[in-house]
Amino acid sequence: MQITTDEIVPFLFLMMLICSASAMICLGLYVRRFPHNPAVLPYQILMFSLAYWSLNYALDLSTVDLSTKVFLHETRFIVNPFLGIVDIWLILTFLNKSKWLRGWYWKALLIIPIITVGVALSSRYHTLFRYNYGVDLSGPLPTLTFINGPWYFIHIGYTYLLVTIGLLLLLLTKEESNRIYRIQRILLFGALILPIFLDLIFQVGGTPIHGVNPAPIFFWITGFFYVIALFWFGFLDIVPIARSRVIEEMGMPMIVLNTELRIADMNPAAERLLGVSARNGVRQKITETAASWPEFTAFCSSSEKRIELSKLDTEGSRIFEARMDLLTSSEGIPEGRLILLTDITTQKKLEQKIRRSEERWRSIVDGAPFPIVIISVSENIILLVNQRTVRQFNLSYDDLIGKTIERFYTDPQTRDELIKILQSQDELDDLEIKMQTGDGREFWVYASVRKIQYMGEEALFISFADFTQRKNLEDTLTRKNSELELATSSLRETNKKLNLLSSITRHDILNMIQVISALSEVISYETKEPNLKKRIGLIADAGKSIQTLIEFTKEYEDLGQKTPVWQDIATTLNTGGIKQLLSGVILITPERPVEIYADQMLPKVFFNLVENSIRHGGGISTIRVSIEDYGDDLKIFFEDDGKGIPNDEKLLIFTRGFGSNTGLGLFFIREVLEITGMTITEEGIPGMGAKFVIRVPKGRFRLT
Prior knowledge:
Blueprint: H1 5-30, H2 40-61, H3 66-76, H4 83-94, H5 104-109, H6 111-121, E1 130-136, E2 143-148, H7 150-172, H8 179-203, H9 214-217, H10 219-232, H11 243-249, E3 254-258, E4 263-266, H12 268-274, H13 278-281, H14 286-289, H15 294-300, E5 306-313, E6 316-328, E7 334-343, H16 345-366, E8 372-376, E9 382-385, H17 387-393, H18 397-400, H19 414-422, E10 427-436, E11 442-454, E12 457-466, H20 468-526, H21 530-556, E13 565-568, H22 569-573, H23 576-581, E14 586-588, E15 594-598, H24 602-616, E16 622-630, E17 633-640, H25 665-674, E18 679-682, E19 691-696, E20 701-703
């Protein structure tokens, strides 16, 4: 089937109408991303109105039914009469002149469009708007024919008048502060004038398409202007601000003087400052207008570019920073002067307050009894030192302020280590640093470092205490301890050799004693003389006593040879040797677990105490060991239920040689305990059992 030209042209026109409507709708939805621009609302209304016009007109051209065409034609004028108002609203808002439409002006502009809507919707019943409707089928599209009434010409003339005024404002207003806004105006002008131009051609009967209004068909071309304006030049994204408005709204006083020092222009802020209106001040000499401010008038005629001025008024003394720029023509001819005044009263007061605070802080820092240094983190230079620092480094302020801190570290890596640590924490305490003075003397300090803000920048606040003397003493003590350890080691080796010699000697003595004992028994057995037998018995007893003493020295030679350790009392009392002694005797240990710092022969201490109670207690049944706090010390009580110790023997029992056996048991106990500062006494009541009290000093016991 062959498609004719009469079929293609209507299809293309209808598609262009639909494309125009789609473009307008998309543009209206897109600008919602600029909600804070006041021009967005009139722009959206305009886009949706044009889209409505295009869709309405597409339906009109797609039908041949007269009643339908008339209905669509009438409803089209629900929107079209307001297009001129929307155009001028958009233009005035874009130019920051929307205040012109406030109040009754806005309401007055709506009178004719509202009347037009009413007249258009009722056009079937009168001849004021359009009448004698018909359908023309001679062209490529079925169009509605009619005769225009008088009100239609009022409507179309009013619309063109509003659009023309808006376009002239858009064309003639040149107060933008940047070239990009002028390009925005040109694009907006082209987008608005194109549909008006096409509609005007249709109104005068010059349309190239018989009976068809080309304006809504070519709205898609208008869309190109808006796309370029929106995406390339920030239309509705960056709002133009008129230079005059910037100057008028500027809070900084601005005065323009001509070459004769007469006021050529001034903004409201300058009027308020000088107490004169622009109407009365312009054309007057600045020396007359600001006669009460001679410091300022002198600046206006000087060659100074910047100066601080003070002014006394009803608000008190105010300080201004005055700046002057010479104005010249493009040929370099002087035309006048531009003077800007900035109120810096608050800034100056703040600076004075900071300065007083810094002086007060400096006096506090200088009064500190220890050196203080403030260092810039970024530049690594010394910003502030106090008197103590000057004396510590034996340098002047000038030798310290502004210098890098590395020169005072004996190890150049110290600062890098400090910065690395301070990256994860804001402060450091008791950091040992080795430093050096200006003359090379080295000393040790405990440094405390804090991150602070000083004079608007990040800094390190470092305070330190010299402990060189203590460090030297510690080094000396460490050296002496090493020497003592060496001497102790030598002594330990000597003791080992002496113990070996003692062990050999003891073995030989015991062998001789056994010979004496054996010969004594043989002689005692063979002799019949009583006196000789008695004397031989005394020799045998003396040999046994010597044997007992020699065997005791085996235990005594280990006394103090090993380092004391922490030992649990209950565990010590439950050793195998003590358990073997406790045949039929009950042993009660402390309820609270406690450890004491004692010689490693402590188990023999308790073994001897238990053995002493069983041997001399006279048939005991119970031994109780308990503990009790005694101020900062600890008391350990060892009690039995035997016959006790007579009062006259309480002090003698701990002496060497006292007792019915060797007399070395309790003496040995006292010697072992005294190694770690403990003492032992007997405080029992005779006849009610023995009571030994071991006193353990502070730091030598711990409750577990």
